Amino acid sequence: MTEQATGAHHPQPRPRSGGPQSTPVEHVTGAQSLIRSLEEVGADTVFGIPGGAILPAYDPLMDSTKVRHVLVRHEQGAGHAATGYAQATGRVGVCMATSGPGATNLVTPIADAHMDSVPLVAITGQVASKAIGTDAFQEADIVGITMPITKHNFLVTKAEDIPRTIAEAFHIASTGRPGPVLVDIAKDALQARTTFQWPPTTDLPGYRPVTKPHAKQIREAAKLITSARRPVLYVGGGVLKAHATAELKVLAELTGAPVTTTLMALGAFPDSHPLHVGMPGMHGSVTAVTALQKADLIVALGARFDDRVTGKLDSFAPYAKIVHADIDPAEIGKNRAADVPIVGDAREVIADLIQAVQKEHSEGHKGDYTAWWKDLGRWRETYPLGYDQPEDGSLSPQQVIERIGQLAPEGTIFAAGVGQHQMWAAHFIQYDKPATWLNSGGAGTMGYAVPAAMGAKAGQPDRAVWAIDGDGCFQMTNQELTTCALNNIPIKVAIINNGALGMVRQWQTLFYNQRYSNTVLHSGPGADGKQPSAGTRVPDFVKLSEAMGCYAIRCERPEDLDKVIEEANSINDRPVVVDFIVHEDAMVWPMVAAGTSNDEIMAARDVRPDFGDNEDD
After folding, report:
1. How far, in whole angstroms, is CA 111 from its chain's centroid?
2. Which residues are marked as active site?
């Protein structure tokens, strides 16, 4: 494969020495071959749990000085930890599980990684090859189960195929549009004798990701940018995957166009930059949502016109021409037809766009966005992000998250669960650098935050890592705090505890006449309908966290907030959990109700923005 075909900007499987020379032939078992292959592709951390079918691999793993294994408490934790590791480091994340239920417990994190284009290799044990298809003990067709949610997957039944398969798996996971790859290995293949030599000869006919964009399409896009009056750069997670943030900043400043970064792209362009108008989508900023709606040109870079961004699709951005650049040709035109489709790696695309726009400028063609910025400035000033303090003197969840962001050490990585706290963390923490915001965007997986933070901290041990979690999410995967405590992975966890499944409760408040069916999480409300007292909490998150080897604090009063956060930041020898008791009625605003047009965005409850402009100008 040529360098152009594979994409020069993604981590490549390679011998650790970096040289082209082959290793001498070794006589080994399939299991030893697997561990040697992981060492050669550069894997340094594996998250997993042993079991019968994968057990042969765990014996040589014990002898490896290059691969660290982190014994998790649940396979879902292993998968999300591998995802957090990959998102924080840019390298391929690796998880390992046994056959049957071990493998099926990886299905959720594999689906999550697939939706968010995360480079992941999941290695599973399988029953012996002759027993496959007999409903043997702990057998599940994990290759069949994961076919729709992997970029590719393999079933290995011969020991000699292991090195080639691992090399191909890491290559596929990390090149083109990244994604999860499953390698299912029969137990007898792990036990058989074989030879090992690196590098193996890979054979991937038909896998040729296009990274270099077509010059004609780039020229067309540049002409549209310089002739538009209301352009928007709509930036998705693909820009982060392509390590194209420096190029994006140059393009934005060269054009002077507003930039909106999706939930998956926060940090791709500095939140603090004057050209940044916020996050688009169902809970996006009024300015970002409205900018897309009223744009005459949308330049989509590594974004997929997700339904959470577009709202009701046939009413999305009715005046806009579309330039859509993506590494994955299947995304272009999938949801919104593109006037100028560009297939290519985001870094290559943006670099070429910069040159093409510069050429347009040199020929006297430069966009005049003065009137556009006047509108954008008015919306930004009139409808800023904000929140009200609770009248009863309790903690505001938005303030808690905002202060965590403001008091966090430089370079802190934030991982969020899913729901209200995720949206507040997206809005009220400032992301100016790439790989500082990790979340489950496409799948919306509750329970993501704690194991993802664990994986991020394992991959970036010198960085502070905060998990911003809800009390609902926390109760799905908090057992991985034990893993953190026992493996010297000192993450910090903020439980935004409103005693309910907060986002679902918000929908019940707005759309179901305040009928709170099965969204109360605590042990039962007191006479006033509010949260229980500290002595009757079930579960008591402070006691639970202490039992798992963490330092735990509870914070209930605004006047204690900074002191508690600073205390959490000062402890770095074990995991820290802070149970923030927050007001249960706080809601996420702005909001576009599901299935409605983005034109119907609400800035706050019962507050519909008045743009005071001519929609057709």
Report:
1. 12
2. 75, 137-138, 187, 503
**C-alpha 438: how far from its chain's center?**
5
CB-based burial, 358-385: b 16+ in 10 Å, e otherwise = eebeeeeeebebeebbebbeebbeebeb
Helices 346-362 & 215-227 angle (0-180, nearest 10): 60
> CA nearest 380: which of 284, 458, 466, 468?
284
Give the DSSP letter string of 282-299: TT--HHHHHHHHH-SEEE
CB 415 within 8 A of CB 466: yes
Helix or strand holding residue 323 (H, E): strand 321-326
Q: What DSSP character marks residue 22?
A: P
193-248 pLDDT per residue, tens:
999 999 999 999 999 999 999 999 999 999 999 999 999 999 999 999 999 999 99
pLDDT tens digits for range 20-50:
578 899 999 999 999 999 999 999 999 999 9
Task: Give this prediction's pTM.
Answer: 0.94
Chain segment 185-206, per-residue pLDDT in tens: 999 999 999 999 999 999 999 9
Q: Is 513 exposed, middle or buried (0-12, 13-18, 19+ CB in 10 A)?
A: exposed
Alpha helices in 27-180 (DSSP H): 30-40, 55-61, 75-89, 101-104, 107-115, 142-146, 162-174
Alpha helices in 408-552 (DSSP H): 420-428, 449-459, 471-477, 480-486, 502-511, 541-547
State the greatest distance between any 2 C-alpha atoms of the chain, in Å, as a whole number: 76
**Cα 181 to Cα 168: distance, rounded to the nearest angstrom:** 9
Q: Pick the closest to residue 396 from 199, 123, 582 (CA basis).
A: 582
Using CB atoms within 10 A of its CB, is residue 215 exposed (0-12), middle (13-18) or buried (19+)?
exposed
Give the H or E element holding residue 219: helix 215-227
84 vs 440: CA distance, rounded Å: 10
Cis peptide before 590 (omega within 30 of 0): yes
Residue type, 315: S
3 state SS for 329-340: HHHCCCCCCCCE
Q: What is the DSSP letter of 475?
A: H
Q: What long-range pairs does 518-523 form, CB within 8 A, spacing at least 24?
A: 521/471, 521/472, 521/475, 522/471
3-state helix, strand, coil in the chain (%, to 5): 40, 15, 45
SS3 250: helix
